[in-house]
Amino acid sequence: MTKPVLLLACGNLSRGDDALGPLLLEYVEGHGDLSEIELLTDFQLQIEHALDLEDRKLVLFVDASVSCAGPFELTELEPAQDNSYTTHAMSPAAVMAVYRSIKKQPPPPCFLLGIKGESFELGEELSENAGKNLQQACRFALSLLSHTDVAVWRQQADSRHPLAGRGMLPRPQDLMDA
Amino acid sequence: MYEHLETAENSENLKRVVVDPVSRVEGHGKVTLLLDENNKVKQARLHIVEFRGFERFIQGRPYWELPVLVQRLCGICPVSHHLAAAKAIDQLVGVDPENLTPSATKLRRLLHFGQVLQSHALHFFHLSSPDLLFGFESDIGKRNIIAVLNAYPDIGLQGVKLRKYGQEVIRMVSGKRIHGTGAIAGGMNKSLTKGECDTLLEDVDQMIRWAADSVALIKKVHCSSLPFYDEFATIRSNYLGLIQPGGALELYHGGIRAKNAQGETLLDHFDYCRYNEAIHEEVRSWSYMKFPYLLSVGKESGWYRVGPLARVNNCDFIDTPMAEAARLEFKAHSGEAMVHSTLAFHWARLIELLHCAESIKILLHDPDIIGHDLVTQGEKRFEGIGVIEAPRGTLFHHYQVDENDIVTKANLIVSTTSNNMAMNESVRQVAATYLSGRELTEPLLNNLEVAIRAYDPCLSCATHAVGKMPLQLELVDAEGRLVDKLVKHNDGTIDRHD
Predict the structure, then answer these.
(1) Which of A73, B40, B307, B308 lies 20 to 30 Å from A2 when distance is taken between CA atoms?
(2) Which residues of B touch A47 (CB under 8 A)?
(3) Best of B146, B148, B154, B460 to disrupt the A interface by mutation (most A CBs within 10 Å)?
(4) DSSP per residue over B193-238, as a string?
(5) pTM for this entry
């Protein structure tokens, strides 16, 4: 029986801040209600992950990010033909596009939780800044995953939304100062 | 050969073009070209800034952690590192390969066939088919898996499902798609259940059919432009890999066989535990990666190729019927003792894909796969060497431990290191033959990447943070000033920076 929510974390535990995704997954595994959430982790996204999107109500990709503005960032994704010339990862948007191509239907609503990282060398520990970012992202993810309503997730992905911060969930910017 | 293009005279007076990173390969590769005023290529090098820190990452750890730990070296071939490490630590607990139980050996082989199948499927369908189906200099927007899925939906879907199937084999045998813990010192920690075998058998015939179709496709692609495919990036080299005692293709365990460009045998059934008597590694000042060579042949011409092309070239036969029929066609097409075409790596890779699918079916019907005699024990030793044929070629893991079971020395030779000189030669061949004297454009530079991608190099970098991997093309004048720069972002957009 496929669980309605998929948390798909990307990263390598032994490459510094690349561990952010898998470490968040471990936190959710230890602290969250997993009755409706499936946890999946992999080093990187590839074509076959499109098949993991089947029969989901919501999907949350989690990955280290060098480009997100704050400690973490939630973004709603759209399928996109990815012309990236690296196999380090297909982007989540490209995985969604693969799903759309092979299933001939739109993928489920997918979101990316990017956690700010800065150093990715083999054998490195998590950097101090990344550790702080992870703490905030974990609390946010746990709150987010307690809801399986896409409208709530969309509010959080766009914190400028008029309903954001009305007591349903902590706003990302509120957590950043915690 | 093209070694004259390794180091240019008066390099300070030449224009520099940098392709960084090379795309659709694992990890970081950078190509630099030095051009004269007429855009003639005077120097071409492939730099790979990787593998530093592997040994340091391993040393100081207890040996029993290694099969799990080494999987983190690489997000693409973790199972190969897992099994090479397991073979090495078998010896640390006093167990030689021939002493493993039949169940443990067959489970490891099944795990490895799953790994090679999914890796080869990814490489062909995702990374290389865009070039092969649309053309090396086709529109950049088409050179990706999604365009393949749109233009060739059946082929694209087969690629996705073949890869998924290989990963299901891995998951069933080791417990997880990645970070599995199937192999332990002296054997395996679990066998398959009858139910798991039956589940995998449900789809295996379909996988064999799709694998056979992929062989037919690559043969058609290759032979439809035979002169070009046989010449592009092609070099004449030695070949090295493991071989079964009877001369059959082998991916998990065997002796080392090496042949020269004429097909004459240089090494045969050579005990891999003595690898350092046959293979030395040269250091060159401009590359972080070493240049291995066969000691008996010497530095100048002792470099060799590993991987699918080497394995299919070196073996006397393949012990599964459909792959063997494909091998015979493959060998016959060139009219030589050895197939030297670099693009024939793709053809050989898909023959191996078919062999893996056939072999998985055979093993799933073998009662030893569900057996419970899984672990052998022996007397402790202080040194262990494990060698395996990873998807990309021969992979060496060599460890020494102290009285406290802590790793004091580790040496890894990964397949991409063995192919280092060959990839450089192929880059130089393409640069000299197809680029020299022409104005450089992105599609033209893709030719360099096509040459490198044929080797399916794994630069072993599983790091992939969002937004971290643009492709940069830089043109620098003789004074070191940036003349032109193209940046290709993760989303495919291209900016020109003046």
Answers:
(1) A73
(2) 122, 125-126, 145, 159-160, 163
(3) B146
(4) -HHHHHHHHHHHHHHHHHHHHHHHHHHHHHHHTHHHHHHTT----E
(5) 0.88
